[in-house]
Amino acid sequence: MNRTIRRRRMAAMALMAIGMTACSGEPDGGSPAAPASPSTEKRARVLSQQQLENAIVDAHDLPGVRVNEIGVGTDGLGNGVIHAARPADTAPSLCAPVSAAADGASGYTPVASVLRIAGTKGNSALLTLVSYRSADAAKVMEELRTSLKSCKGYEVGTGAMKVTYEDVEATDAPPQGDEGVAFRLKWVLEPGKDGLRSPFIVAVIRHGSTLAVYRADSHTPEGSANISRDLVNAQSKLLEAAVHAPS
Q1: pLDDT tens digit string along 71-96?
Q2: 111: which DSSP letter?
Q3: What is the pLDDT of residues 1-15, one digit of tens each?
């Protein structure tokens, strides 16, 4: 059964990394950060692809952390690029922002993006850094927050490629960046009342016009998912320095 779960998770990772339309535990943190003031927003710069890659956490910033492109140790699935998600791919459509965020994306076209697996031994997460135009980043957060008020579950894809998610629930986001939104949900591996569900958790933190999306899956259907506080703190520190650096 565990082999089946791993195969399905790998298949989903492949779709997220290569054909991405865009792609119970709590994050270690507290209440969502309050939105930044307009004066702070003006000082934040839009990060380029190179600036975004330069802002990825490494062992110098967090001792013991390992950061790999998607594909390293996973049969060469490739390092996916984030594109704007299509709302029509998600049913019901009110869940589109949640569906996109779970894949590290949104309905807006990014300026640049980076997708990695990051973490320490036994506690890794899918880390997506996405740079947007200044106005778009705040809209992504607003739409996600609104979607979480009504979205309880959704489906993505059609036919044999359809994937179902249930038990969507907003949680507290780590207190980092200008604002944050977090939620948990379950990926339906086997349908039916007694079918398998794999829990995972997503935290989206905005630093100026850059979003950092952390996604951690449970290792077992009965387990919980956790996003490392140390990883979030270290990555947040780097992004804050990057977006507020002199142009």
Answers
A1: 655 544 556 688 899 988 899 999 99
A2: S
A3: 444 444 444 444 433
The four Cα atoms 134, 78, 186, 161 give a dihedral, to 10 degrees, of 110
Residues 137, 211 contacting (CB under 8 angstroms): yes
How much is the pTM?
Answer: 0.81
Q: How far is CA 195 from the centre of its chain?
A: 25
What is the spatial distance between Cα 235 and Cα 247, in angstroms, rounded to a whole number? 20
Strand, coil or helix: what is 24?
Answer: coil
Is residue 132 within 8 A of residue 107, CB to CB? The reply is no
Query: In the structure encoding, which two tokens stand for residue 215, read together?
Result: 């996604």
Using CA atoms, how far apart are residues 67 and 124, in angstroms rounded to an integer? 9
Q: Which residue has tokens 């387990």?
A: 223
Distances (CA, A) of 223 to 10, 45, 145, 168, 210: 18, 39, 26, 16, 31
Q: How far apart are the first and last CA of the chain?
A: 52
